[in-house]
């Protein structure tokens, strides 16, 4: 049997098992071969075959649904098991009972939300791909799914780590993991302010460069600007609008500029302490990476997710 057939068979078996373990409220630990090549566009499991992922699949319940934009739906998932955890920037394998295809969606919430309320959030853009299509057309409150955390793209500094200046570069819905990182950086700042004694990590400066078609497509814009106002010396952002046709809303004007992210914008943020995280379309990642290298940022200081 070919490797593609082995993976398809394993995925079918896993999908059929998900429904059973969700009904029982149990956990599922599983491993199967994921490395394969197929013609055309690779799916989530293929694209992330070499990435770290947990062995345990956890049951989850949809406890909130909202429309983040015309094409992006935001889900709040209750994951009650105490062993479930993730790092800011990571994603989940998203299992839907009865569906063979496995989705892959980055968390758009901070780890602190899970610690406080036992929930995570995902923002899913509409596509015909079966898992995303299900989220937009069939998912409802109290729907039951399953999730497994994975990904090598994350921000999780230890208390002993030296401070770094974060540069977050997002394109479109690629904002999801970077928004999680931004929120985590803000949480670390709050913690350092309230725990002046003891072993705590204090982040350096965080700057977000976020490119979208227009202000309607800017996800999480209100919270992003609120965080910038809360920490004006520590967190800043720039919204780059590539196809804006109308006037920019007054409250967003101080943060907005027309056009793509420029080499000058990137160069201004490169210092010896810069650590860059990028997520977006591959052409944007490749272009921005080249500009950052030209500005003197080494490859080991440039981290990216390039899924689509």
The DSSP helix count reads 8
Distance between the termini: 29 Å
Uncertain runs with pLDDT below 50, 5 residues or more?
Answer: 1-10, 31-39
Largest pleated sheet: 7 strands, antiparallel
Class derived from helix and strand content = alpha/beta
Instruction: Kindly report the average pLDDT value.
Output: 89
Any idea what the radius of gyration is? 20 Å
Give the tally of β-strands. 13
Description of the structure:
With 308 residues, the chain is an alpha/beta fold. It has helices spanning 3-24, 44-47, 111-117, 130-137, 175-194, 221-230, 263-267, 282-294; strands at 28-29, 56-67, 72-78, 91-95, 103-106, 119-125, 144-150, 165-171, 206-212, 235-241, 256-258, 274-279, 302-305. β12 (274-279), α8 (282-294) and β13 (302-305) form a beta-alpha-beta unit. Mean pLDDT is 89; it is low at 1-10 and 31-39.
């Amino acid at each position: 049997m070919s490797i593609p057939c082995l993976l398809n068979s394993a995925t079918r078996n896993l999908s059929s098992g998900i429904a059973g373990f969700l009904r029982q409220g149990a956990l599922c630990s599983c491993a199967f071969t994921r490395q394969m090549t197929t013609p055309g566009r690779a799916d989530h499991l293929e694209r992330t075959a070499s990435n770290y992922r947990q062995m345990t699949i956890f049951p989850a319940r949809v406890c909130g649904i909202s429309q983040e934009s015309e094409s992006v739906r935001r889900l709040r998932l209750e994951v009650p098991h105490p062993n479930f955890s993730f790092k800011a920037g990571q994603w989940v394998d998203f299992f839907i009972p009865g569906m063979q295809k496995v989705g892959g969606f980055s968390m758009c919430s901070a780890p602190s939300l899970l610690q406080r309320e036992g929930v995570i959030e995902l923002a899913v853009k509409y596509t015909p791909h079966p898992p995303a299509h299900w989220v937009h057309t069939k998912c409802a409150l109290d729907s039951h799914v399953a999730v497994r955390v994975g990904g090598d793209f994350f921000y999780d500094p230890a208390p002993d780590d030296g401070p770094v200046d974060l540069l977050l570069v997002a394109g479109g819905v690629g904002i999801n993991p970077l928004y999680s990182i931004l929120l985590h950086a803000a949480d670390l700042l709050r913690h350092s302010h309230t725990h002046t004694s003891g072993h705590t990590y204090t982040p350096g400066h965080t700057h977000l460069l976020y490119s979208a078609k227009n202000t309607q497509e800017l996800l999480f814009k209100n919270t992003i600007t609120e965080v910038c106002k809360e920490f004006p010396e520590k967190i800043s952002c720039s919204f780059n609008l590539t196809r804006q046709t109308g006037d920019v809303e007054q409250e967003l004007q101080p943060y907005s500029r027309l056009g793509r992210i420029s080499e000058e914008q990137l160069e201004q943020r490169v210092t010896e302490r810069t650590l860059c995280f990028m997520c977006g379309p591959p052409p944007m990642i490749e272009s921005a990476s080249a500009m950052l290298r030209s500005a003197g940022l080494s490859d080991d200081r440039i981290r990216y997710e390039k899924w689509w």
